[in-house]
Amino acid sequence: MQRWRAAMLAGAGASTAIAVLGWLDLGWQWTLLMAPFGASCVLLFSLPDSPLARPQNVLGGHLLSAILGLLVQLLPLPMELKLALGVGLAVALMQGLGVIHPPAGANPLVVLLTAQSWPFLWQTVLPGALLLILMARGASWMKQRPLRTP
C-alpha cells in the first residue's frame, strides 16, 4: 500500500507541475513546456533523492544540452550528423561536468528538429527547469510534514 501511495503522490506532483507550466504558457505567451520536462518529472517526483534529480543536474543538464543544440545548429552539416553530434556532446559534457540529467539528452533533438533560436534558452528551458525544481522541492517539503487530524 505504501508503494501505491508514493506512486500516486509522484503522479500528482508530475501532473501538477506540467499543468502549471501549461497554464503559464497561456498567461505569458511563452512556451514553457517541452517533452524532456515530462521525463524530468519522473526523476523529480518519483526519485527525488537520486543524484540525477539534484537541482544542479536538472538545471545544468537542461541548459547545457539546449545550448549545445543551438550551437550545433549553426554547423554546416547534414541534419542527421547535427542530431548525433548534439546528443553525443550533451552526454559527454553533462558527464564531464557532473550534471547528468538523462531527460536533458533529448534537448538537442528538440532544438534541432523544431529549429529553435536563442530565446528558447531563456523563454522555455531556464524558466521551465527552475519551476520544475521549485515545484518538486515544494512537493518534497509537503510530504515530510506530518498529517494533522482534527
Verbal overview:
There is one protein chain. With 150 residues, the chain is an all-alpha fold. The protein has one domain (1-144). The chain contains six helices and no strands. Helix 1 runs antiparallel to helix 2, helix 3 (55-73) runs antiparallel to helix 4 and helix 3 packs parallel to helix 5. The radius of gyration is 17 Å and the shape is globular. The protein starts with a helix and ends in a 6-residue tail after the last helix. The mean pLDDT is 90. The chain crosses the membrane at residues 6-24, 59-76, 83-100, 120-139. This is HPP family protein.
- Count structural domains: 1
| Low-pLDDT runs | none
Count of β-strands: 0
Helix content: over 70%
The helix-strand sequence is HHHHHH
Main sheet, how many strands, which sense, barrel? none
| Termini separation | 24 Å
- Count of helices? 6
Structural class: mainly alpha
Range of strand content: under 5%
The radius of gyration over CA amounts to 17 Å
Mean pLDDT across all amino acids: 90
Query: What oligomeric assembly is this protein in?
Result: single chain
Can you tell me the overall shape?
globular
